[in-house]
Amino acid sequence: MREQRALEIAKCLINHGKWRSHGRSLKIDDLERIGLKITKIDDDPDLSDIVYRIQTIIRLLYSSTSAYKIFANADEKIFVNASPVGNQRKMPPGDVKAVEVEVKCQKCGKVHNIYAKLVDDEKIDEEFKKKSFKSFPVNNKLICDCGYEIDLSGIKNEIETQVGKKIIVKMEGKNEI
User: Fold this and answer.
1) Average pLDDT, the chain
2) How many domains does the chain have?
3) 168 secondary structure, DSSP code
């Protein structure tokens, strides 16, 4: 009987003609009308405190990281991050030694100039440092001055795929691929 009732409720909730959109929130009255028993969190001070704290933390994460989905249970937390690919870059023909990348912070709008080195040549580092470029970060994460973390994994994948070479990053005096 419970399974049958659960199926009826599920069928009602997935009725696009009735609810129209994922962007529209369901009201407590709507849920009670289809037969769900609702416990209002504001009626339980301990529960409401926990829920509102979690909600605040999630809002902070969304506003200060590139996370756009969070899945969590008692054992695991999974964050799904946006990886900006930026503008489609046309790689110059021939043997590419380095690629210039302009990355704009999604939070404050600051533009960061970085370079991706594709051959092990210290002259490349010297040239780009003269132009005030930063080298591609080892962990694919660029931290803006405003504290926002920009995930460059998508840009790295795009460059490596187009050029057919791995980006070389410098890690405490040695090069890493």
Assistant:
1) 83
2) 2
3) B
